[in-house]
Write a structure and sequence with these properties.
single chain, 175 residues, alpha+beta, signal
């Protein structure tokens, strides 16, 4: 085989490989598994920031799932859909006046010391509930606490949302 024929055969092989490879590469690689691990670890870390004297007497309720915005064009999931991992934790600190607020302050101090930026706060429930938001490296965290009110439980709710990634082969995600 001549040198020119070998070069042409080699280039044809490269073109075929690129063409076939391009047909199978429809999405960016999903980082959802990685984000799940990180989100769950961050949620555990935040619960651990609650001072011992306020520590929950029962294990926190945890919800951890992949989430996505509903596709407005098609209800069928696509590997290209943008998704994120979300962990919601419901904590009941020791029941005493200002326990929820004090636990939230401790979590806030830990987040701020770790480089998180306080980005937002809102009040709901006619001012009884306050949600403080924090952001860092495309991650979002919300700490919701309640003001002391006679006869009401003091709770702290934590939400961790990962950056967005592609769905990939994850079929368990809900909108």
């Amino acid at each position: 085989m001549t040198r020119t024929a070998r070069a042409i055969a080699l280039m044809a092989g490269v073109l075929v490989a690129l063409t076939l490879g391009g047909c199978t590469m429809t999405t960016d690689e999903s980082r959802l598994d990685e984000y799940r691990t990180e989100a769950e670890a961050l949620a555990d870390e935040m619960v651990g920031m609650i001072p011992a004297e306020l520590a929950p007497t029962t294990a926190p309720d945890v919800e951890s799932s992949g989430r996505m915005v509903q596709n407005p064009v098609s209800a069928d999931p696509s590997p290209d859909d943008q998704v994120w991992w979300q962990v919601d934790v419901y904590v009941e600190p020791v029941q005493r006046a200002a326990a929820s607020e004090d636990a939230a302050k401790a979590i806030a101090a830990g987040l701020l010391d770790d480089g998180w930026e306080h980005t937002d706060a809102r009040e709901t429930g006619e001012g009884r509930r306050t949600a403080d938001a924090y952001a860092k490296d495309d991650w979002y965290v919300e700490v919701t606490w309640v003001r002391t009110e006679e006869g009401k439980f003091e709770t702290v709710e934590l939400s961790v949302l990962s950056p967005r990634t592609t769905r990939g082969d994850h079929d368990e995600i809900r909108s």
